[in-house]
Structure formats: structure tokens, C-alpha cells
Amino acid sequence: MPNVLRCMLLPCCDCWAEIFQNYSPTVNDMALFFSPGDFERSKQQYFSLLELLETRDMALRTNINGVSLLIFSSKRLDKDSYGSDVESFLWGAYYPAKGRLAAPPLLNYDSQANAANVEQ
After folding, report:
1. Which of 1, 27, 85, 86 has the fewest Cβ atoms within 10 angstroms?
2. How far is the CA of 84 from the CAs of 76, 77, 88, in angstroms?
3. What keywords does the record list, in alphabetical order (predicted)?
């Protein structure tokens, strides 16, 4: 995964039903959890982004190796799945173009072949 994600801001209504069709997602649907880091500036930016997503009911979308990553506020998760004493956080779910949850490919076929050749 790249160190910096270039994301597009979009309304949750544009992507939520496509991914989580007839159920409310839980922590089991999370592929990634994002934390703000240790620096005060990072924390301020993280919580500003979290507030933006929550107050405007938005999500972030990016593409990694041909697989989409959607990032949401934890306010969109079923509260029973993570507890009421947990602060809000950012989480992500992968999905292919058809809308099913998926994990991104870690290595493509050529990368695997090259890695095998290097090891020999």
C-alpha cells in the first residue's frame, strides 16, 4: 500500500448500498483501521477529516492496484459490534468493480515470478 493515499470525497449514499446491500456492517467487515499517529498536527488533521465525514455523511474512495478502497467513519458501523465506549475512528473496506468486498492483490503475477527468480 502506498504511504500516501489520493482519495476522492463522495457522499456515502453513492457507495454504501452498493457494498453493504442488505446489512449493517460490523468490525468484521473492516479491512483497515486508520490511526492519527503521534504528532499533534496529525491528530488534528485526522479528527478534522473524521468530523467532515461524519457531519456531511461522506466517504473517501481511492484505488490500489485495481481494487477500490472505501474509507468511512466508525459511526457507520453497527454500534453493538465495537462498543459504545470507543471513540470514533476511520476504517476501510476493499471491493472490486462489481461491489463485492475483496482484498487487494499484494503481488501481481509478474512480481511473483520476478521474486522467485531473485531468490534462486
Report:
1. 85
2. 13, 11, 10
3. Metal-binding, Transcription, Transcription regulation, Zinc, Zinc-finger
